[in-house]
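User: Hey, my collaborator sent me this sequence without any context and asked if I could get a structure. I don't really work with proteins. Can you help?
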Amino acid sequence: MTTKVCNGNINSSWKNGTVLISGAGLIGLTIAHMLDKLSIPYSIYDRDENENFRGQGWGITLHWALEDFLSLLPVELHKDIYESEVLENFHLKDTGNFIFINAGTGETVVRIPPTKRLRVRREGIRKTLLKQVDVHWGCEAEDVEINQDASDLID
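Assistant: No problem. I've predicted the 3D structure and written it out in structure-token form, which is a compact way to encode the shape of the chain:
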């Protein structure tokens, strides 16, 4: 993998056993927190110039994966995750079905029964996930090279 040089050399990071994460979106940042909890070194790179470079959309619902998601994060971030809810404390009074509706016909496509879930603002949850993570901004992957045996990468 070659990229624009950002605060160091990507290849030397890889040879030193550092996990490289491409992208500081929700998944990349969650992986960074998980690796940190496991004391595994990582470097995270993102193509955007900074965290506010691009809009993050409106909201997402965390339901069946909520507990697993929270288990990957430092406990001190859990409160901030809940504070990024679309409606404040909505999880405390959410007892209804989560319904997906076909906008063209008005018909219900999917009805998810009440479960523990959290409807969060993407921007809010991303800002929370950026805490305690050092991102190398403005780095774009230009090429990926596959080494079949990786012998030159391992000491």
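In plain terms: The radius of gyration is 19 Å. You can pass these tokens on to your collaborator as they are.
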